[in-house]
Structure formats: C-alpha cells, structure tokens
C-alpha cells in the first residue's frame, strides 16, 4: 500500500507502556541528583552532622518509649534529612521548567502523571539514602538504643512519610521559578521542623506555639515516623499528615495541569 510522502503513520508512534515510566529516565534522574553537590551536602551530610552535634548531651540515655532519647532524636533527624532530600528532588521541576526541559517533554508521548511518578520514585530513593546515612551515623555513634525491629520500622515509616515533602517540592517547583525553589524550601522546612517538634519536643513550647504546631505539615508526619518507637499516635496527627499530603498532591496536580495546558 502506497503512502503519501512526508506523512507519518499514527500507528508508528505508539504511546509507551506505563505512560513512559522507564528505568533509563529514572537512572538519569538519580545520577543528576547525586551529582548535585548542594543536594549531597545539605540533604545527606547536614542531617547526619546535626545528629553528631547533639551527641553527648545530658538526658540522651533517658527512656523514650521503647528506646531512649537518643533514638528519638535519631528518628527525627532521619525525617528531617529525608524531607529535605525529597523536597529537593521534587523541586527540580522548577529548574527544568526554566531551561525549557518540561516544554520539550510535552512534545513526547510521556504522560504527565508518569513524569510526576518518576519524580516521586527518585525522591523516595534519595530519601532512603538520607535515612540510611543518618541511621549509619547513629549506629556508629552508639548512643541510640531501641530494638532492631523498631529501628527498621521507624526507617520504613519515615521513608513513606517523605512522600508528603516530595509532593511539596513538586508543588513549589511549579509555583516558584528556577533555582529559587530550594532557596525557599530549605529555610521553610527548617522552620516547619522547629514548629512541628522535630528539633525540639512540643512539650517544651508554650501553649500558644504548641497549638500552632498542631496545624503545621511537619507535626503529623513526625508523630507517625516516631510512633513505632513511642507507641503513641494521636488521631489528629494522622488527620494532619493525610490532609497536608492531599493538599500538596492536589496543589502539584493543579499547577502541573496549568503548565501542561500551555502550547
């Protein structure tokens, strides 16, 4: 059968399976993140350094749930490091948009949902690296004491909690231009960590600050991440975590739909 010169058979341009999710793109994304010195320093080294800087303080051997205070702090630093890493991975969409890479991707059969899914997978892998780094340093330090299965449970739960901040990173990446995204997310997450009880337990705050903390994005995930250790998980902490995750996902999807609608 003869075809007209210059035309393209639509059947020859098939939509890739799984919307375009593939290991090659994932490998490229991971390699790019690992080559970023800022990411390595501020999301992998900095939280572990914070854990070391807290070492030797009085009260670290006090009991905290099924372990001690040192274990409580270790889980908190793991969450902080993983949140920074996941948010950094998600916010890379801001740089890609400024360079025109997102516009280039829109010319391919890549599904926008698949694009966000790959960003989320990269954020999870980077979050796992941050959690591992903090836990290895904590194990070498030798201060943290908790059962091995609790140690593992806290690490796994913390990893899934980082999905909230991956969504936050994507959301901010679609709102803030260029490299300004991480300049906002870095100090912002530090402030949220202070308010959410990651760096300082909430019982040391005043009643006013504590009631504000209950509404912050970091509070719910921090309580969930530490729940295998503390064996305490208020229902309103779960509601907080689910609500903020939904807000960030909806916000990221909304901004992504606005961005992909441009021709």
UniProtKB/TrEMBL annotation:
Classification via InterPro entries: ABC2_TM, ABC_2_transport, Nod_factor_ABC_transporter
GO BP field: response to antibiotic
GO CC annotation: ATP-binding cassette (ABC) transporter complex
Signal peptide start and end residues: none
Membrane topology: Multi-pass membrane protein
UniProt domain ABC-2 type transporter transmembrane: residue ranges: 24-227
Primary localization class, coarse: membrane
UniProt-recorded name of the protein: ABC transporter permease
Organism domain of life: Bacteria
Protein keywords: Antibiotic resistance, Membrane, Transmembrane, Transmembrane helix
GO molecular function, one term: ABC-type transporter activity
Location(s) in or outside the cell: Membrane
Transmembrane segments: 39-57, 69-95, 116-138, 150-172, 184-202, 235-254
Family annotation (PANTHER family): NODULATION PROTEIN J
Pfam families: ABC2_membrane
């Amino acid at each position: 059968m003869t075809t007209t010169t210059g035309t393209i058979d639509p059947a020859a341009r098939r939509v890739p399976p799984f919307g375009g999710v593939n290991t090659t793109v994932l490998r490229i994304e991971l390699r790019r993140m690992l080559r970023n010195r800022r990411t390595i320093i501020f999301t992998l080294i900095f939280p572990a350094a914070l854990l070391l800087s807290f070492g030797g303080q009085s009260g670290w051997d006090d009991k905290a749930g099924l372990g001690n205070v040192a274990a409580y702090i270790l889980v908190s630093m793991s969450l902080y490091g993983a949140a920074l890493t996941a948010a950094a991975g998600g916010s890379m969409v801001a740089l890609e948009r400024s360079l025109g890479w997102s516009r280039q991707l829109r010319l391919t059969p890549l599904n926008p949902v698949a694009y966000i899914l790959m960003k989320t997978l990269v954020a999870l892998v980077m979050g796992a690296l941050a959690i591992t780094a903090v836990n290895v340093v904590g194990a070498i330090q030798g201060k943290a004491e908790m059962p091995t299965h609790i140690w593992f449970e806290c690490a796994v739960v913390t990893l899934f909690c980082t999905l909230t901040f991956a969504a936050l990173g994507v959301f901010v990446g679609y709102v803030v231009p260029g490299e300004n995204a991480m300049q906002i997310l870095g100090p912002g997450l530090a402030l949220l960590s202070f308010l959410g009880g990651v760096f300082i337990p909430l019982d040391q705050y005043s009643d006013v600050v504590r009631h504000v903390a209950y509404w912050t994005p970091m509070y719910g995930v921090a309580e969930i991440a530490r729940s295998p250790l503390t064996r305490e998980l208020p229902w309103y902490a779960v509601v907080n975590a689910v609500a903020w995750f939904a807000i960030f996902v909806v916000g990221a999807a909304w901004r992504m739909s606005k961005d992909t609608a441009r021709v």
